[in-house]
Write a structure and sequence with these properties.
The chain is α+β, with helices and mostly antiparallel strands. It has one domain (4-107): FAD/NAD(P)-binding domain, CATH 3.50.50. It has three helices and seven strands; from the N terminus they run βαββαββββα. The chain has helices spanning 12-23, 48-56, 97-107; strands spanning 4-8, 27-31, 43-46, 67-69, 71-75, 79-84, 92-96. The strands form three sheets. It has a three-stranded antiparallel sheet with strand order 3-7-4. It starts with a strand and ends with a helix.
Length: 108
């Protein structure tokens, strides 16, 4: 049974929900108050599990302009621990939210 779904907001999570719902055969309408050329906000971090899902949907992650996050440092005047963020094939990516939102929007 196909549903008619309304999604309020055009951010990364909302657009991801739209992709999943449309691929499941539902009719989806998105309401967003900001225009596509409005400032999309600050940085974004995309974890390995999210990257796997976005790649399964066929999104070009390199086209999002995101960079691999290879290591992080926790510091209070001295190095406490070096955190390794590379787990197998997928990694953590970071960059500007606008690039990822644009890419997710194209994938829907």
């Amino acid at each position: 049974m196909s549903l008619r779904v309304i999604v309020v907001g055009g951010g990364i999570c909302s657009l991801s929900a739209v992709i999943a719902l449309r691929r499941a055969g539902h009719h989806v309408t998105v309401y967003e108050k900001y225009s596509a050329d409005a400032d999309a906000g600050a940085g974004v971090v995309v974890g390995a599990n999210a990257i796997k899902v976005l790649k399964q949907w066929g999104l070009d992650m390199e086209g999002s302009g995101l960079l691999k996050y290879k290591a992080g440092y926790v510091s209070e005047g001295k190095t406490l621990k070096i955190l390794d963020f590379v787990y197998g094939e997928e990694s953590t990516l970071y960059g500007h939210k606008a690039g990822l939102e644009s890419n997710v929007e194209k994938g829907g």
